[in-house]
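<instruction>
Derive structure tokens from the sequence

<record> Sequence and structure tokens follow
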Amino acid sequence: MSLEQGSGIWITGLPASGKSSVARELALRLRDRGLPVVVLESDMLRKVLTPFPSYSEEERDRFYGMLIGIGDLITRNGVTVIFDATANRRAYRDSARSMIPRFIEVFIDCPLEVCRARDPKGIYAQAASGAPGTVPGVQATYEPPLQPEVVMDCRSTPSEGAELVLRKIRELGLLPV
């Protein structure tokens, strides 16, 4: 018996744009439809894969390479993977797209000012105080996707964002939802 290829859904945007909230809501809705789903949340996986993160370019390259490899393995086993990760360089997301045949990219478009105002982890405040760091959009480049399948405004609710992604999934015939 062979398993059908799972799908990869990469949710990207600046830190504090709302990626995790949308990822959680989307996963819940997919599970409610009986679909197997795994959320690969970069903040949680960093604790395992890079327990003392420096956020250097080299470390990011290694981390995202591992994240993509894990996601590819999971999708090959018929499970949908939601990548909840900034992935500040387009090349990371493009690499996942090239490895995972059933892939969509979701961009949460959020002005830097809104992300700074939200700042749940205090990373923008640290950057503003002059602390050394590599915050995407402030101290490191963030390359937004050129042609994402879904673009959502960060002021949308997680429920509205999840519904937008579900509509695109249906339209593309990626999942039986």
Observations:
- The mean pLDDT is 92.
- Residues 57-75 form the longest helix (19 residues).
